[in-house]
Design goal:
Length: 215
């Protein structure tokens, strides 16, 4: 019997481990096949909610935020690139030089959920930032992602030029923060089982099978 599982994928479009985690989850869902039907919802989390409009040099930012040396950062970038390659996601780690505010991207993702195209937009945003090294706070970049996702660019432009979905995004962010989410990706299954981090597909597969058997 197929078990339907709600999956809340709490993440930011500027989080490389979130892109890896999504690809790993996809692989795991493919492996469990008809055992599980996933009802997937992307929930907002801003790694840098106070980031200014011009963004910040990524090496400078990570040094300030985590105290990592340039050598440590280079090692981490290579590990991310390899983990991405393992699950079929391309990171251009050398060209991605800045980190940006992602609030508008989350507003569009909330709208896309209503339109039934949230997954498509999420993937387009990951690709724009990590593969093509574009600025996810730039409205033209966002509108191109909207087009790639099969959504209406005119409606999206109207949303970007307003405060639509801002309150909804903030409420969702606060909800998951109150629930104890402090880092992403955070994958919550049936609103009670938490898997943290960009885990390998085997971890997601095992969790999905165990939860489906219990629910």
């Amino acid at each position: 019997m197929t078990k339907q599982l709600r999956i809340d994928f709490v993440s930011d479009v500027s989080c490389p481990w979130c892109a890896i985690g999504l690809k790993s989850l996809d692989t795991a869902l493919g492996r469990v096949g008809a055992e599980v039907q996933a009802d997937l919802h992307f929930q907002p989390f801003e790694l840098n909610p106070d980031m200014g409009p011009d963004g910040q040099d990524i090496v400078e930012h990570i040094t300030e935020k985590y105290g990592a040396t340039a050598e440590q950062q280079a090692q981490t970038r290579e590990a991310i690139r390899q983990r991405g390659a393992d699950v079929g996601f391309v990171f251009d780690m050398e060209r991605r030089g800045r980190i940006y505010n992602t609030f508008d991207a989350h507003r569009l993702l909330s709208w896309a959920e209503q339109e039934g195209r949230q997954r498509e937009l999420k993937e387009a945003l990951f690709s724009a930032y990590f593969t093509h090294c574009e600025d996810p706070s730039n409205h033209e970049v966002l509108l191109r992602a909207v087009g790639h996702a099969g959504l209406d660019r005119e409606v999206a432009a109207r949303i970007l030029n307003s405060n639509e979905f801002a309150e909804e995004v903030r409420e969702r962010e606060q909800f998951f923060q109150r629930a104890g989410i402090r880092s992403v990706p955070a994958i919550i299954i049936n609103q009670k089982h938490l898997i943290s981090g960009g885990q390998p597909p085997e971890v997601f597969e095992r969790a999905l099978r165990e939860i489906a058997a219990k629910e």
